[in-house]
Amino acid sequence: MVSVVSLSKKFRPLEAKLRRAGEAALARLKYKRANVDVYLVSDPAMKKLNREFRRKNKATNVLSFREPEKFPHPEGKGQYLGEIYLAPEYVRKSGENLERLFHHGLLHLLGYTHKKRSDRIKMEKAEKSLETWLIS
């Protein structure tokens, strides 16, 4: 299940589209019982998160926070993967695709990285696979 929450009224129209994109991506990746929370935030809020958690004093397009291992979930409704924060204004100004960045964040929650070249190649391949499948 993908929960999308807008922290600003102006982002509410994006919620349903991102929820559908997320559900489709989770199904494609065979995580049908997984749960992800997505937050749509302003550029200043994203800058604050980026500064606090990555020590970078600037806004960014997407941040992902994986669920700590063995974190208790008494509700027991599938695997909780973590949280994704998206900055729609930043994404629009940068000419990027919000759904693609959502998938990028989701892959980070699933353990993909792009620190090393080999990791980046694997992640890009997974992103391309998702994009190709979802378009067709």
UniProtKB/TrEMBL annotation:
InterPro entries: MetalPrtase_cat_dom_sf_prd, YbeY, YbeY_CS. This is Endoribonuclease YbeY. Its EC number is 3.1.-.-. Gene3D superfamilies: Metalloproteases ('zincins'), catalytic domain. NCBIfam families: rRNA maturation RNase YbeY. GO terms for cellular component: cytoplasm. Belongs to the endoribonuclease YbeY family. Keywords: Cytoplasm, Endonuclease, Hydrolase, Metal-binding, Nuclease, Ribosome biogenesis, rRNA processing, Zinc. GO terms for molecular function: metalloendopeptidase activity; RNA endonuclease activity; zinc ion binding. Binds 1 zinc ion. HAMAP family: Endoribonucl_YbeY (MF_00009). It is an enzyme of class 3 (hydrolase). Its cofactor is Zn(2+). Single strand-specific metallo-endoribonuclease involved in late-stage 70S ribosome quality control and in maturation of the 3' terminus of the 16S rRNA. Zn(2+) binds at residues 104, 108, 114. It comes from the Bacteria.
